[in-house]
Design brief:
alpha/beta, Aldehyde Dehydrogenase, Chain A, domain 2, 13 helices, 14% strand
């Protein structure tokens, strides 16, 4: 097995840690670690593998898929995406706010299953935003930068890309927005686009996966329009539905597509006993628990037969009269009750005219005597 670590540009500390602990605790003749930047990907993908598992962005995911296709190598791609949240007016707003703010700002929003954007019903939108503000303050205090529970952006390049989203959405900021480039810190930020769908569509926040502590919100009154918006974008890795009205949640589950969906919570699918994986642009294949064993295994079908009980009608020539009669009888669409009757007749014939009679008769006799003893 070969492990390709992220480059120093993205996760240098993680790469170095894997490079140290894998040789220390695992057999290097079975498991090897390769460190390097993106140019190393081509070299790593050149050999033939039994299976390729990749998690990352869709750009490299396509490179992996293209390389695997040369050798017909099966792949699992877990690629993330813009995972939407839908907050219905029937939802418990304080509970939803706590769960969503926790899920969104875990690791400063740098998780593949983080909420990317929110559609909130306009009847409860203002109250929901206030609940979200209260939840952020209760989690991270009045000055989140001093909180020991809020992560930093992983590197300068990623920080700068999040800063562009932050500055573009500044007119719609209702919470957070502070940042510190030296500390790679961005405060938990809420962007409220209200009912301004044009600004929402033009915003940098909706261009690609945010992957940071910035959460844009748009009001809605028509669930059908929300469904159309979700379906007009690339299929997301996750979708989060917050609704106590089962008609709403079932409609969203039925009329949209996502790698997986969670109703009335967030992130917990990552540790639940269900398959985890993307669909379309968010990936292919699934894993976790039982599904990991299935993913990395080949289910080989095996049929074993004994040499007795051959059916002569299976072999040529097929034009023989009795074979034609037998096949036409067996394949005729008889009603179920006639099929059951024919089975009984066939069983009686087998027991009457074959050597099985000598074996079956004593068994049936003893069975009937046994049953009669109860009456």
């Amino acid at each position: 097995m070969l492990i390709k670590t992220p480059s120093d540009k993205y996760g240098g500390a993680t790469a170095r840690l894997l490079g140290e602990i894998v040789p220390q605790y695992l057999d290097v003749t079975c498991v090897q670690v390769v460190e390097g930047a993106r140019e190393m990907n081509a070299a790593v993908l050149k050999p033939r593998y039994d299976h390729i598992f990749f998690t990352g962005g869709s750009l490299v995911g396509k490179m992996v898929s293209e390389s695997a296709a040369r050798h017909m190598t099966p792949t699992v791609l877990e690629l993330g995406g813009k995972s939407p949240c839908i907050v219905d007016k029937s939802a418990n707003l304080s509970v939803v706010a706590q769960r969503m703010m926790w899920g969104k700002f875990t690791n400063a929003g740098q998780t593949c299953v983080a909420a990317d954007h929110v559609y909130v019903h306009q009847d409860v939108a203002e109250k929901f935003i206030e609940c979200c503000k209260d939840a952020i303050t209760s989690f991270y205090g009045e000055d989140p930068q001093k909180s020991g529970d809020l992560a930093r952006i992983i590197n300068k390049k990623q920080f700068e890309s999040k800063l562009e989203v932050l500055e573009d959405g500044d007119p719609y900021k209702v919470c957070g927005g502070e940042y510190d480039a030296e500390d790679l810190y961005i405060a938990p930020t809420l962007l409220n686009y209200g009912t301004d769908e044009g600004a929402w569509d033009r915003s940098k926040a909706m261009e690609e996966e945010i992957f940071g502590p910035i959460l844009p919100m748009l009001y809605y009154s028509n669930l059908g329009k929300v469904i159309n918006r979700i379906n007009s974008q690339e299929k997301p890795l996750a979708m989060y539905i917050f609704a106590n009205d089962s008609v709403v949640s079932e409609r969203l589950l039925r009329e949209t597509t996502a790698g997986h969906a969670v109703v009335n919570d967030i992130l917990l699918q990552f540790c639940a006993p269900i398959p985890f994986g993307g669909v379309g642009n968010s990936g292919m294949g699934s894993y976790h628990g039982e599904w990991s064993f299935k993913t990395f295994s080949h289910e080989k079908g095996v049929l074993k037969r004994h040499v007795y009980g051959e059916i002569p009608a299976r072999f040529p020539p097929y034009g023989v009269g009795w074979k034609k009669l037998l096949v036409s009888t067996l394949t005729y669409p008889f009603p179920a009750k006639y099929v059951a009757f024919l089975k009984i007749v066939l069983l009686i014939a087998v027991l009457r005219f074959t050597p099985l009679r000598r074996i079956a008769s004593p068994i049936l006799k003893n069975l009937l005597l046994f049953l009669a003893s109860f009456f």
